[in-house]
Amino acid sequence: MIGRLLDKLVFGVALIVALQMPLLVEHYHQYLSGWYKATQWQVDGYEATAKTHQFANAQVMIENHLKNAEPSVRTDAEQKLATVELLADLRLGMDTFATGNLLEKMLFMLHPDRIHVLKDVTQNFKLGIPLNPSGLAFAVVFALLLNFLIMLPFRFFGRRSAYSQR
Fold first, then answer.
1. Tens digit of pLDDT for each residue in 89-109?
2. Could you report the per-residue pLDDT of 11-65, keeping only the tens digit for each?
3. Measured between alpha carbons, how far apart are the two ends of the chain, in Å?
């Protein structure tokens, strides 16, 4: 009886946790979208500056500034280069969130290089229940699998004990 109660408790907790994942993915997408727009705006400004000063594009301007003798100009160019590279990474994320399934989005979000972003997102995250069928289906399937994996050792140990008493 205690085993069945524990089984139900584990499933309930797993279901509550699993219900949060689609919502967390959506919050992450919104955060990423805002960051992408802001970074895109910056890089567009670099492109405009490059055109104004007769450079072919921002990349050529940055490469030129990296060769400059003035340390502050080189440092500024390094910051611009980092922003351009960040935009490429953010674009990859936006593509993943536009076309990927929930699992692909979660894998992108949980990548070790992006954990700091996930920490920022979770600071403003509010618990809830997803209202779309795919979010609910994911939560139920994930909770069942997690429950099975967590309870497997107890079931195996319980059966083994029953056989040893015979």
1. 999 999 999 999 888 999 999
2. 888 888 888 888 999 999 999 999 999 999 999 999 999 999 999 999 999 999 9
3. 20
* Triad 25, 28, 32: Cα angle to 5°: 140
Evaluate whether 25 touches 165 at the Cβ level (below 8 Å): no
Instruction: Report how far residue 124's alpha carbon sits from residue 117's, in angstroms, rounded to the nearest whole number.
Output: 12
Contact yes or no for 129/140 (Cβ under 8 A):
no
pTM (2 d.p.): 0.77
Digit-coded pLDDT (tens) for 114-160: 999 999 999 988 888 877 888 888 888 888 888 888 888 777 666 65
Mapped to the 3 state alphabet, what secondary structure does the chain carry?
A: CHHHHHHHHHHHHHHHHHHHHHHHHHHHHHHHHHHHHHHHHHHHHHHHHHHHCCCCCHHHHHHHHHCCCCHHHHHHHHHHHHHHHHHHHHHHHHHHHHHCCHHHHHHHHCCHHHHHHHHHHHHCCCCCCCCCHHHHHHHHHHHHHHHHHHHHHHHHHHHHHHHHCC
